[in-house]
Write a structure and sequence with these properties.
Blueprint lengths: L1 H6 L7 H30 L2 H6 L3 H27 L3 H27 L4 H21 L1 H9 L3 H12 L3 H4 L17 E6 L20 H7 L3 E2 L10 H10 L18 H5 L4 E5 L20 H20 L2 H5 L24 H4 L11 H11 L8 E6 L35 H31 L7 E6 L20 H4 L4 E4 L7 E2 L9 H8 L16 H4 L3 E5 L6 E5 H19 L33 E4 L18 E7 L7 E6 L2 E7 L11 E5 L12 E7 L2 E4 L2
Parallel strand pairs: 1-4, 1-5, 2-7, 3-4
Antiparallel strand pairs: 2-6, 5-6, 8-9, 10-11, 11-14, 12-13, 12-15, 15-16
Helix pairs in contact: 2-4, 2-5, 2-8, 4-5, 4-8, 5-6, 6-7, 10-17, 16-17
Length: 709
């Protein structure tokens, strides 16, 4: 009897106990495969949450869901399939374990070895299968995985309590402060993004008042500081430096707790807050209403999930697959490019103003308009502050206000954010920056009309500035990272300050830092902030006599010091290039489109042209040419696509719209990706007519046109 008892196999654990063990296994491996890599990334970049205005509840609940929900879903799948039998329950569990281990292995192998995608994938799968087999056959492996069961909770607590994200998850909001003096003047402050001063200059290195009438109107009544420059090149720290007048530091993130002496806290007791931040959360929620939180909770979590999903795919994907993914934006918003595929300005898509996924899309205009509508002329003066992501990428707006693409991401992935050896394509990117700057100017014109209509223009302090510029250099992918060699293009920023009652414009050539803006506002209003700031008033002797620039290097925060004469020579090079490419506003609105080789062809009828044998052309927006509505807010003015056969990348080409040459350029290839030979040119809106339009691509040979495709 004893031998019979010994031969009888012991029953396995109950289904409930087995399910609990399986959940612990899945949670551990999911944490190592997905949650912890994201926690590590977010811990180093808490700006992801600050840029969205994420609440404490959003951050904590999202973190919990990230750790617990996916393993729970996988367990439910196991239980459902387990209805077919306990063996199926165990087999499905092994499949999930193999997949999760393969994902962990893929990340480790990607860092450790340089090999092809198929080899990397094959090795990862082999490791996953091997570990699953060991789990099934070896008790020590199962025991070891059980020992790791607390890991998900440990990593979660370390993330929420021990990383910089803790400042956002459990914030200590800044309160209103008391300043010296009585402030009755309304304040209107617009901070633009990614706008270097040279974009605004004419052939005399003065403000181009024809091309940019909005800036010109302010300049007639304000002090323009043409030599102003940024102290940092990244929005998440460059903007707060303007808001509180202090130099950025590594440990401070864009929250009210880390910037307790911001312009919002200092004026909160005297001014009504009308504040719209796009990439920071410096104004305390005790002082400012954050419209970003008006979006439904489910949509906010869905947006974070989509964006972080793309980030994680970049982490885990083999190199060739990764190169085909959408680019991760520096602004931690809309990585995937959520956007409408149809509809123009004023469509239903545009009216979803608070959707964080539209942060870099058409919502920019809507949010600017909504901020303008909230400006009031009441008994209590207002602090009307707007950071707008203009003319920041994605480039999609024309000076008229129309869009030339409806989704934020380029139709060809990487078109706007890769390094180029092709000077022609780099010039097109700069051209698109110029066009979007024209749109930013249009927004300023709308603001000035509103201020005058409400009787605020004369008495208000009005400040327009940018947080940093952008540089267009060959062979450089990151056009927003300041280096010593591109400081002359990226560091200069526009700065205009209108004092209450000021009716005459003037120019002040002082080298004003962005941290000097807030002290200058207090100086203009004759107020005492009663707090120390790193910056000084632009009118102080210290700033007026400044002869060396100081810019902090990104991440290291080491100062880059540049003598003024050297800086001026570097700015001159950029100005010369811009003037050569785009002329001035006095040359007419079409001048910005006259770039590229063979400009003598522009405007000419194409006539009959021989075809290039064996060639084919694919236009990315071909369907949109069939029914153009020039008054509908969308014009497909960006002619982009692929060409095959009949030549090599770098060939000279021309785009004809309705039988006339509207743009000239060269073909090119991307540094990364397998997109083939591409073309990308901007054509004037006026080239299109209402209804159907014919768009064609021609190869230019010795001044003659030959049709491609």
């Amino acid at each position: 009897m004893a031998s019979e008892a010994a031969a009888t196999p012991r029953p396995g654990p109950s289904l409930a106990k087995a399910a609990l063990i399986h959940f612990a296994n899945l949670a551990v491996l999911w944490t190592f495969a997905v949650a912890q890599p994201l926690f590590d990334l977010l811990g180093d970049n808490p700006e992801f949450f600050a840029a969205r205005g994420s609440s404490s509840f959003d951050i904590v609940s999202f973190s919990l869901l990230l750790v617990l929900l996916p393993p729970l879903v996988l367990l439910l799948v196991e239980l459902l399939l387990g209805l077919l039998g306990r063996r199926m329950f165990r087999v499905v569990h092994l499949v999930f374990l193999a997949a999760l281990v393969a994902l962990i292995a893929a990340q480790a192998l990607k860092k450790a070895i340089d090999t092809s995608d198929p080899v990397l994938i094959g090795l990862s799968v082999a490791i996953g299968v091997a570990l699953a087999v060991l789990y099934a056959r070896a008790e020590p492996v199962r025991s070891f995985l059980g020992v790791l069961s607390p890991a998900p909770i440990v990593f979660l607590l370390l993330f929420l309590l021990g990383s910089p994200v803790s400042k956002l998850a459990f914030p200590d909001e800044a309160g209103a402060r008391t300043i010296g003096g009585v402030a009755r003047a309304p304040i209107v402050m617009v901070l633009l993004d990614e706008l270097p001063t040279n974009t605004l200059l004419d052939d005399r290195r003065r403000l181009d008042t024809v091309r940019y009438p909005g800036f010109a109107e302010l300049a007639k009544n304000a002090t323009w500081f043409p030599n102003a420059y940024t102290v940092y090149d990244s929005t998440e720290r460059a903007q707060p430096a303007i808001m509180d007048g202090d130099l950025p530091t590594e440990e401070r993130i864009p929250t009210s707790a880390d910037h307790p002496n911001s312009i919002f806290a200092l004026f909160a007791k005297t001014h009504r807050m009308n504040v719209s931040e796009e990439a920071t959360s410096v104004c305390s929620r005790d002082l400012c209403k954050d419209s970003r939180l008006e979006e439904p909770y489910g949509d906010r979590i869905s947006s974070m999930t989509e964006d972080l999903g793309l980030v994680w795919l970049h982490v885990v994907s083999p190199p060739d697959i990764e190169s085909d993914l959408d680019t991760v934006s520096e602004n931690w918003g809309n990585f995937g490019g959520e956007g409408s595929a149809s509809g123009g300005v004023g469509s239903a898509d545009d009216r979803v103003a608070t959707d964080t996924r539209s942060n870099l899309n058409a919502g920019r205009r809507v949010r600017f308009d909504e901020w303008i509508q909230k400006i009031q002329n009441g008994r209590r003066p207002g602090l009307n502050f707007k950071h707008t992501l203009l003319p920041h990428v994605p480039w999609q707006f024309l000076p008229s206000g129309a869009r030339y693409r409806l989704a934020p991401n380029d139709v060809i992935a990487g078109l706007s954010n890769q390094s180029y050896d092709s000077q022609g394509q780099l010039d097109v990117l700069l051209q698109r920056h110029y066009l979007q700057t024209g749109f930013a100017d249009l927004m300023l014109q709308e603001l000035w009309r509103d201020l005058k209509r409400k009787g605020l223009w004369e008495d208000a302090v009005i400040v327009v500035a940018a947080d940093h510029g952008v540089a267009f250099q060959r062979g450089r992918r990151d056009r927003r990272r300041l280096r010593r060699e591109n400081a002359g293009e990226l560091a200069p920023i526009p700065l205009f300050i209108k004092a209450p009652g000021q009716k005459k414009g003037r120019t002040d050539d002082a080298y004003v830092e962005t941290i000097d803006i807030l002290p200058t506002i207090f100086d203009v209003l004759n107020l005492d902030p009663k707090v120390d700031m790193d910056g000084r008033s632009a009118f102080s002797s210290e700033v007026q006599n400044r002869d060396t620039l100081r810019i902090l290097e990104r991440n290291t925060f080491r100062p880059i010091r540049i003598p003024v004469p050297v800086f001026e020579r570097e700015k001159q090079v950029v100005w010369d290039r811009n003037l050569r490419l785009f002329g001035t506003g006095r040359d007419g609105p079409g001048r910005v489109y006259r770039i590229g080789p063979n400009q003598e062809l522009l405007g000419r009828p194409v006539g009959r042209a021989a075809a290039v044998p064996g060639s084919s052309v694919g236009f990315a927006y071909e369907d949109d040419y069939a029914d153009v509505d020039p008054r509908g807010g969308y014009v497909p003015a960006h002619v982009v696509g692929r060409v095959q056969g009949g030549g090599e990348p770098g060939r000279e080409v021309a785009v004809a719209v309705n039988g006339r040459v509207a743009a000239v350029g060269t073909t090119f290839t991307l540094a990364n990706g397998e997109e083939g030979e591409l073309f990308s040119m901007m054509v004037p809106e006026s080239a299109f007519r209402a209804g159907r339009n014919e768009v064609a691509l021609y190869q230019v040979e010795a001044g003659a046109l030959r049709k491609l495709g």
